[in-house]
Structure prediction request, 183 residues.
Amino acid sequence: MVKGQKEIEIVNIVVSTSLETDVPLEKMVATLPNTEYNPEQFPGLVLRIKDPKTSALIFSSGKVVCTGARTLADVDRSIEQIIINLKKIDIEVKIKPEITVQNIVASGSIGMPLNLNFLGIRLPNTEYEPEQFPGLVHKLRGTRATFLLFSNGKIVCTGTRTEQEVHDATDKLIENLEKMLNK
Prediction:
């Protein structure tokens, strides 16, 4: 088998933080555009940020979950936008929020076609139900990474928390696949 060309890029970074101040969600939704708040269905307010294009769930406790960023710089800019929006309703954030990466999602290709029926039988920690979903789900041992593998060689990696983890896990996946296919 010819070694595939790995191409992978981060498509979503999910982070959490605390602003360490209470946030009046009713006031936010009444004052700010790009907000949605329906407390009967969900206790958090959704703030859609245009630049960078991200969304934040903001809770009255000051806890925030931000999603949609593709870089950590975009994460920082998103949090700054949240703080700027809070200033507009006279809420002062007195700290620099500590950001915790919860999940990184990356997608790309390993540059080789995959026989998912074969891998579904031979690859450990795998689920493959082609009637339900066209991809194979593989939890990579010894890592936090879970992969979706598709027959055309496209992949999605989730569960990692750093860009380095994404690349290390993808390299390990390719190494495991090559060992298995060269047996």
